[in-house]
Structures are given as structure tokens and as C-alpha cells.
């Protein structure tokens, strides 16, 4: 019990911390004189305030991402005009190169290009892809759905593995726990590119249980396993450690002494504690799944933003790179908000502690 | 948290999808018997074009797919002659500068526009317009093309600045497929997504990173004279699927998910040969073989003796054999064996001879040795930088093996070759920076021996777009090739092109390695009559049909 209480404590005491003695907190009335620290504290204290802060920090994050990507792409050697015209294998005449430079504004100073680019972002205009000659927003809208399906299915598989392995083997005497733990380490260490090709060759090419390529749900199984299995091994390891600790808590003993069946104790009580760190890591996990999707989408020839990102980076397709990076950053932000909410759903104490502070 | 129902639902879904994936339907199962008519074909290929209009840019994947929905003015046969297609006949003026094409009458684009002289003129104008961002088409046309005019409703006149006898074979490529003027007027974005032609299929949908769906043009009646049949295609629908991964692409063929795949991976050739249901069709591209181009701007390589020494020391047939295990043959000429007027006497001009290589290097003054045993001159080591694209899609593993073999062979005579893996952007940058490379691996697919002029002339060097990778020219070679372009006499052409191959060989501006090949693998138990046309190795699906009883 104690470990969880302290870990959630900063959320409750945090807002009080920054308020200095000289500037007592002014809970009543907003007033323009409210010092930033106190304002921040008040914002943090309420749920809408916390969400507003999250959104604000998300916006700052997106701006930073856009700026970094913009300047990094300009540090890449080579003329983007040539990249647009087909890269190293094409031989456009100089007039065509000049026309493209003028069309895309590459002849402008870098800061002017940056200002134009930021202006476009503010208007919600991600621009048009250099190579695909289509609006970036449309490309992403078309490609994000298969990627989200893939990552969603992978996360479900990862959790199925983590929960299954923990319930079956964690905190059990003897060999079972060691085998379970060892297996998880192996799964967590499997590289995507290797696992994907092995699954493809074994289940699709040799056994033909699943299609090599398919756009329906059957085609999702192998790619989702490729991504989900290593993450599942990792989540299981984290959950197992927590499960071991929680199962030694007094409440387990008291539940057992009330006559609750051991299986129910593991399932209803201990797992609830053990799942929290895994849930917190799922937000990060979703992000890592999206970067893993880059590899998996190529192996299984799936549509998705991973494939788009690879081609966009190699062909110096700046608007598309930024668009995809944006979306990935956005997924991280949303995933972290969702994992916070999930943690609240699993751990009722978090609800009361936030409520109490506001 | 009550994961029990959610989990069991997930398990049920998994079981369902596994069941759904079982078994592959025979594509001809529900087709009418006794005819070739009907059915869907899945054709899987490795590379996806960035634009479906082949006038834009001009990369190989564009021409392969464009052949299915665009017709050209003429069609090329393997011997380099052309037969009628959209142009029923043509007249060439005595001075070789005016071509009158007489178009087939009654042909319509799939958007209902008529094919007339104005439409063809609009195509030439669109190609020449910088906004189209054309590259390949301009390399063929801009030094010669002056204007295209409509002489009458069905006669187009192409006027040239100077004679250009390869023009007809050049126009046979799908790169010069004729498109609807109304469709082209929509602008680059719309025209890239769905160009409109007069061809046997039309673009129905392009799902990026996945496939292009092609539907039959039921009114098609403008097949080339060398097609296996006239009239509409047999197949109702073609799914042009992009499967980058070699294992997945070959697996799709084996499992029957695809009836034909392009670019059978070299490692799958033994499995394909052993499988009685799989037929392979190898096509040797016309043009310049895959070769290491020598940058003559580098001080080491400006000396022809050094260039010849490199070729003598390389044992090119040996390094190709070792890398491609006999799947690709060796070619030492500046032209591939599939090119019209290829001269076999230059097949292996500088046989493996390390002693001769050493002698040539001595003569060139590279007589010193550094501590590693490499040759030096005035204290400088004889080093050659060979940058290559580190993406295995661009530099296949076998090509990398070739580079490594080459490096090892040159080391034996004291030449240091530095292999430099680079990303795509750096390779693009290197292209226009002659100080950044000494050697580069390149090839050029082209239906005409005139490609030697595109790759090695003063004119292309002066354009300075990185096309002349050797960065050199030879007045005699230029004169010979201009003369060849100026004559329509086949015998004279053959003699001149042969002379040109001789000059190129003696200059040793490159080390040719192997001819570029297209390898098509098909399920012979499911589909028949896919053929490869010779100008660019484009697969032709117009005559293809699905096998069933009675057909």
C-alpha cells in the first residue's frame, strides 16, 4: 500500500510546493496580479486546468518538433529541388531545377522559408508533398488509419501476453516463475525485422495459415504479432516485478483469510496494483510501436505512415516529414493523456486525491 | 478493470481472422469457360512510382505501369524497328528533320476526348513545359525538338532542329505515352494521381503504399500492330500491388495471392526454377549496362592508362559471376547485348591481366608504395572513392558484393578503393559535385544505341546535370554519333554505332559489369500471355488471360 501512496503523492502536494511564503496563494478571484507560479499552481489544482496545461505544453512541443525537423532537414546535404525531381537517378535539365526552386521557394533565404512554413502551420496548412504532389493532410489521413489499427492491435496483444504471463507464472513458487520470466526476456529482446520475416516465412509462405499480403483483418495478425510480442515481453517483465511486490502486501493475506479464492485474489486485487506501471509505460509503448511500424509496414507491405515517413525522409520531402512527425508527436501526447486516465480508472485512489486537491 | 470479456472477445476475433485467412481462392474459379474473357489479376512489383504520369520525372516504375493505360505513337520490336500504334503511318523528310505522323481515326481517350493531332501536340507541349518536371523525356528530346504542329485533323508534324534517327524508337517508350489534353490541363497533382490515356486499362484508384487498381477500357481498339490480339483486354481488372519486401513478393506468388511478380529476387531464383507452377521470363534491357563510371575530373583518373589499368585488374567477369552466381551475365561493352547495333567484338575488351595493369600504372608514374603496399606518386596514394546508396533497395546485396570484389581485385595491383555508404540525400548531392566521387555505379536503360550520346557527349557535359558521369567527351565520338543520328540507312547506322562502341572502349571511361535485366515470374498454372515489350522492358497485360477449362 505504502509504495503506491507515495508514488501518487506528488500530484497532491505538487501545487503547494512552488508557492513561496512571500506570495501566499490567492485561491479567490483570478485578478491580473496573480503571479505566474501561483497561476500555474491553481491551474494544476483543477482537472480542466491540468488539461489546459497539457494542451499548452503539447502545442509548445509541436512547435519545437516542427522547428527542429525544419532545420535538421535543411542541414541534410543535397538540393531539395533535385530530390523532388527524382533524386540521384534522375537527370533534370537546369531549367527544370530552376523552375522547381522558384515554385517551392527554395531560392528564398532560410528564415523567410521558416516564416512561411510556420505561417502555414498556424493556418493548419501542412502544405503539399514534394514527391507525391498531394496535400500532406490528405496523405496522412489516408495512411494513419492502418497504422493506428496496427498499433492498437499490437498493444492489445502486448497486454494479453503481459497479463497472461503474469497471472500464470508470477509470484508462484518453483520453476514456473523462472520459466515465465526467462521467456519474457527472450520475447522482449526479439528485433522486429527478424521476427517479422520469420513469422512471414513460417506462417504465410510455408504453412500458408495466414495470407502473405491481405488488406483485411487476416492481414493484420502477423504484423500485429511482430510488434506486439516484444512489447508484451517488456510489459510482462514490469508487471511481474510489481506483481511480486504487491503479492507480499498485507491486504493479500487479509483477503485470503477472508476466504477469497487465491485465483480471485491474484486476478482482482494483486493484478490491479501490478498493472499501474505497465499502464504508465503504455503511452511510451504506443510511441515505440509507431516507430516499429516503420519496419513492419515495409516487411508486410502495409499502408501506413511508417512507410510514408521512410520515403519522405530519403527523398527530402520536408512537408511530409514534418506532417508525419507532427502526427507521431500528437499520438505521444494523446497516448500519455489516455494512460493518465487509464491509471485513474484502475486506481480509485487517484480520483480522490485529485479531487481533494481541487 | 475487467479484462475477462474483452480478452475473450479478442481471442474470438483472432480465431476468426485466422480462419478467414485460410485457403486462397482460385482466381479463375467463377469465370466463364471456353473464352479468355474476364477475371482479375494481381501483379506485384517492388517499386512504387511517385507519379503515374510518365512525362513527369521519368523513372522506370512509371513506364512499367503507364504501358497499361497509355498508348504510344509507335511500338518497337526487338530488332529496333518500329510498327504502327496510335500512328498508322509516318513520313520522314529527306533531311531527317520533319516527321509527319498519320494518326489512327476514331480513337478516344477514356475521358471521351478524341485522339487527334491537337491532342498529340498538347502532349509534346506538356512534356516541354518546366512545370511538368520532366527529366527523362527532356534528355531524349530537348537537344533536337523544335516544335509539334497539327497539319490536319489526324496528321501531326514534329519538326527537329537537327536529324535524329532514334526518334521513332524513343517515342515507342511508355515515357512518351499519349495522354488526354483535358486530363493534362487539370495540372500536375490530378494528372499524377490519375492520368488518362487511350490504353487497354484506366486508372481507377491509387492507394498509396499499397496498390493501383486498373479497370478495363471496354472500348479499347488501338492495340499496337505487334500485339497478340486487337480489341479490349481480356482481364476485367488488374491490381498493381507494391510489395517491396522480397520475401513477401515471392511468397505472394507461391501462395497464389499474385499471379505475376516483377523483379524475382535473385535469392529466390532456385526456388522458382524448382517450382513447376512458376515460369520466369528474363529480359535483357537495351541501353548501357550497369557499370562503374570513372570521373575524369579526378587527377588520378584523367590519365587513360590508369583507367585501362583499373579495367585490366578488375577481372569483371569473375566479380560478376561471384556476386550474381550466374543469374546475371557479364557485359564489358558500353552497350548491353539487347541494344540494336550491339557489337559483340567489344564484349570483353580488356581481359583480366594484372601484369599489364601493373605496367600501365608504372608508365603513368604510380611507382612508389606506401606502408600498406598501395601505389603512390609524388607522395600521394592512388585512392579512389566509390560512394554508393546504402539503402539495399537501391544497392542490392549482390551489387555491394561486386563493389567489395572490385575493391579486393584493385588492391592486388596497388589501387586503394574506398567504399563509401551514403544516404539518398548525399547521393543526390554527390551527383552534381564532381569533387565528391571518383567512381559511381550507374546504368541507363534506353531503346536506342543513341544513348551513348546522352551519356558521353560534350553536349550533355555542358548541360552540367550530372548526366555525363565520366565528365569527359571525345570529338570523334560526338561526330560519329551525330552522324548516326543523321542517317536512316540501317547499314550505315550499324557501322557508325560500332565505331562509337570502339571509341568508348578505348577511352575506358567506365568499367561495364552486367546488363540490366527484368525478371518476370508468373504462375503458369493461372495466367498466360504476359509479354515484355523491348523498348524499356515494360510488361504488357493487354493480351494476358486467366487459365480455365477450354481457354
Automatic annotation (TrEMBL), chain A:
The chain crosses the membrane at residues 51-72, 152-171, 183-210, 216-238, 274-300, 320-346. It is found in: Cell membrane. Its main location: membrane. Residues 13-26 have a biased composition (Low complexity). Residues 1-10 have a biased composition (Polar residues). The keyword Membrane applies. It comes from the Bacteria. The keyword Iron does not apply. Residues 1-33 are annotated as: Disordered. It is a multi-pass membrane protein. It holds the Pfam family BPD_transp_1. Keywords: Cell membrane, Membrane, Transmembrane, Transmembrane helix, Transport. Residues 144-343 form the ABC transmembrane type-1 domain. SUPFAM superfamilies: MetI-like. Belongs to the binding-protein-dependent transport system permease family. PANTHER family: DIPEPTIDE TRANSPORT SYSTEM PERMEASE PROTEIN DPPB-RELATED. This is ABC transporter permease.
TrEMBL record, chain B:
The keyword Transport applies. InterPro entries: Peptide/Ni-bd, SBP_5, SBP_5_dom. It is found in: Cell envelope. Residues 1-20 form the signal peptide. Keywords: Signal, Transport. PROSITE patterns: PROKAR_LIPOPROTEIN. Its main location: other. Residues 81-448 form the Solute-binding protein family domain. Belongs to the bacterial solute-binding protein 5 family. This is ABC transporter substrate-binding protein.
